[in-house]
Design goal:
The complex is a heterodimer of chains A (243) and B (310). By secondary structure, chain A is mainly alpha-helical. Chain A has ten helices and no strands. Chain B has a six-stranded mixed β-sheet with strand order 6-7-8-3-9-10, with helices on both faces. Chain B has a four-stranded antiparallel β-sheet with strand order 2-1-4-5, covered by helices on one side. In chain B, strands 12-13-11-14 form a four-stranded antiparallel β-sheet, with helices on one face. In chain B, helix 6 links the parallel strand 7 and strand 8. By secondary structure, chain B is α/β, with parallel strands linked by helices. Classes of the chains: A mainly alpha (243), B alpha/beta (310). Chain A: It is a multi-pass membrane protein.
């Protein structure tokens, strides 16, 4: 039997098993992403256009980070502790197929939130979107990195440890990462850290595709993401195949 | 030969270099169409052995061959030859039993999948009422039966069932044994992992008793029983708890209130029954039953050093 039909059945299995949860997650994602765009303007009394544009082009990145590095590790933790992970390992399919099918599902649930927040931001503030064709590959790349890294650490670490890490990431990504504001505002040591961590590169690449005339991403950003993406998925496949 | 496990040893190293020998030089072979019982107490090493057969963990030494090829070389092949019902419940989430069983069937059999088999299984196990209910809302027994169906919907050459009857009601247990029997008619072999010894006795062709990682004994149920004890046991309910003269030909006896158990030589059966009838007639005994030593007696005697029962 070929990989494609295995992929189809594994996808159906995982999708139907989580159906109710996924619908709920999509709704939460929409709320969070709109919340970021509108909510942050309450923090800043008289936001200028640049600030709004930063928020509006940061929201999709936050959604992708939340999905891959927060919700996904929690799900993996549950699957580990209730024995589902062990059961998946007995399936007569290539483990990469399971990872691929799951990635597709995680990708799908981020889309409605990203579209909703962008439409709302545009209608309310017209912050100056200038969407380039690169938005599709950029979104895929950011999503894959985020999901891949999420898989990597949640497979490697114990459920408790990965839950703790994901809590740190939520807080860090929202408050201490140059996603919703420019990098220059951070202290130097944090700037240096963000040159290595993938979050800054994700934000830069997303911004450069949503407002192409205002922002631009460097080749370094792309290389950074690729390295993290390979590390994440590599780690996940290693753990899945480990005996 | 479907499965050939040859001198497999697996040691787990815990924290502080604590070593736990989960499997100690285990060898066994399973032929086509055979139901093989793996009996043992909690932590005896049964599940570790199963996981090695599936290629999920690698033995420290020894070899496992499935259909003549080593599992170590191609664990993916092992997973397509064997289908498993895990010991823990399979969390179905929002999947209905019908969806779960159908999808696993398609995953295993591809185009050869026959949806009528799902109906057939559900009917054989009387699961119709649950077929389209969300997994989360099912009772433990219904979930366990669903996991069983997932293992046998498109069975490979070897089906491994880890405690399949847990949580299942007595009526459906019987249906379940019937389904297992039908599997072997098609040439599928079954490994039944359990500590429910009495039930297993009726279902298996051969058993291995495993304790602390070692196989203590393997053979047909009657071979295992006779290796331990060739006695019969008579259980009596006495009319009163007062003294009762224990017959001289009793090999051993145990009295607990008005309940008396005596062990006898199989050759004494006829005279013992006559003796018991006489005492029923004169009112000293309420009733009596005579039975051969069960595989449970053998199992307990082998796995614990204590002599229990008789």
């Amino acid at each position: 039997m070929n990989l494609l039909s295995h992929y189809k059945y594994v996808f159906q299995m995982q999708f139907l098993r989580n159906a109710g949860f996924l619908v709920f997650m999509i709704l939460i994602q929409i709320l969070i992403s709109i919340g970021i765009v509108i909510g942050f303007t309450y923090l800043i009394p008289v936001p200028d256009k640049d600030t709004i544009l930063f928020l509006a082009t940061g929201a999709p990145t936050i959604i992708l980070i939340f999905t891959g590095l927060v919700i996904l590790p929690q799900q993996i933790g549950t699957a580990k502790s209730d024995g589902y992970m062990e059961f998946m390992r007995t399936w007569p399919v290539n483990r990469g197929v399971i990872l691929g099918a799951d990635t597709t599902i995680w990708l799908i649930i981020t889309i409605p939130g990203i579209i909703a927040s962008s439409v709302v931001a545009h209608l309310m503030f017209s912050p100056g979107y200038d969407i380039s064709w690169t938005v599709i590959p950029a979104l895929l790349m950011i999503a894959l990195t985020s999901i891949g890294v999420g898989y990597g650490f949640s497979y490697l670490l114990s459920p408790t440890a990965s839950l703790a890490l994901s809590q740190v990431i939520v807080f860090g990504a929202l408050m201490f990462s140059p996603v919703n504001f420019p990098m220059e505002r951070l202290p130097e040591w944090l700037q240096a850290l963000h040159e290595i961590l993938p979050i800054y590169s994700m934000a830069e690449i997303m911004r450069a595709s949503l407002a192409a005339s205002t922002f631009e991403a460097t080749a370094g950003n792309y290389i950074n993401l690729m390295i993290w993406c390979v590390l994440g998925y590599g780690g996940a496949i290693y753990i899945l195949n480990k005996k | 030969m479907i499965l050939d496990v040859n001198s497999v040893t697996k040691v787990f190293t815990g924290r502080g270099k604590n070593k736990m020998v989960a499997n100690d030089n285990i060898s066994l072979r399973i032929a086509e169409g055979e139901v093989f019982g793996l009996l043992g107490q909690n932590g005896a090493g049964k599940t570790t052995l199963v996981n090695q057969i599936l290629g999920l963990i690698t033995p420290d030494c020894g070899d496992i061959q499935l259909l003549g090829k080593s599992v170590l070389g191609s664990p993916a092949r092992a997973r397509s030859i064997c289908s498993v019902q895990p010991q823990s419940q399979v969390p179905l989430g929002f999947l209905t039993p019908k969806q779960a069983v159908t999808l696993i069937g398609k995953m295993r059999a591809g185009k050869r999948f026959d949806p009528r088999r799902v109906e057939m299984l559900f009917e054989a196990l009387d699961m119709g009422e649950w077929a389209n209910k969300e997994g989360e809302k099912l009772s433990g027994g219904a979930k366990r039966l669903t996991a069983f169906c997932m293992a046998v919907i498109a069975p490979g050459k070897l089906v491994i069932l880890d405690e399949p009857t847990n949580d299942v009601d007595p009526v459906r247990r019987r249906y379940l044994w019937q389904v297992i029997r039908n599997l072997t008619n098609d040439g599928t072999s079954v490994i039944l992992v359990t500590h429910n010894v009495l039930e297993a006795e009726k279902a298996v062709d051969r058993v291995a008793i495993i304790n602390k990682g070692k196989i203590l004994m393997q053979g047909t149920p009657s071979e295992v029983k006779s290796s331990v004890s060739n006695q019969m046991r008579m259980e009596l309910s006495l009319a009163s708890e007062s003294d009762f003269e224990i017959p001289s030909w009793a090999l051993s006896s145990q009295k607990n209130g008005s309940r008396l158990i005596i062990a006898i030589d199989p050759q004494e059966v006829t005279s013992t029954i006559e003796w018991a009838k006489e005492h029923v007639d004169n009112g000293l005994i309420m009733d009596y039953s005579l039975s051969p030593a069960t595989i449970e007696d053998a199992y307990i005697e082998l796995t614990s050093k204590k002599v229990v029962g008789l």
